[in-house]
Design goal:
The protein is an all-alpha fold. It is built from six helices and no strands. Bound molecules: the ligand O=C(C1CCC1)N1C[C@@H]2C[C@H]3C[C@@H](O)[C@@H](O)[C@]2(C1)O3.
């Protein structure tokens, strides 16, 4: 009801702030848009669930996330995809993998510092009550 919509509205505001900060961080520029499937023609042979920051931003606005944990799970998909498609030790792949690891630690740190655990618990409980 009203209370629920206020909680999920506050979650959207928090998640928009986080994704906006990630999108404006130059070291994460490779994660902003979907991998170009016209350019990377074998990408879907390797990666089953593409994910990127702009898709996450759309999902926030669609109300797809009813907890921060669901948001972090999509960030993890970005990380796992980057590690899976860019495994070799050539310099470009190593740079991509390093950024993927940086992304995960950056998001985990933001969540630990800035997301109230009671608020996240309320989101999880409201999600179950749906
Ligand atoms: O995995 C990715 C993105 C980086 C994190 C997501 N890509 C697959 C290609 C391999 C590597 C070099 C370019 O070929 C560029 O097209 C991509 C894009 O980076």
């Amino acid at each position: 009801a009203k209370y629920e919509s206020n909680v999920f509205r506050e979650l959207r505001i928090f998640l928009r702030d986080v994704i906006n900060r990630l999108m404006s961080d130059r070291k994460f520029c490779c994660f902003v848009k979907p991998v170009n499937l016209d350019e990377v023609t074998d990408y879907l042979d390797v990666v089953t669930t593409p994910m990127d920051f702009s898709t996450i931003a759309d999902k926030i606005d669609d109300g797809s996330y009813t907890s921060a944990a669901q948001f972090v799970a999509d960030i993890q998909i970005i990380v796992n995809n980057a590690l899976k498609y860019n495994p070799v030790s050539d310099p470009l792949s190593k740079a991509v993998r390093h950024r993927a690891f940086m992304l995960k630690d950056t998001v985990d740190s933001i969540i630990d510092k800035e997301l109230d655990s009671d608020f996240e618990k309320t989101c999880e409980e409201l999600k179950e009550s749906r």
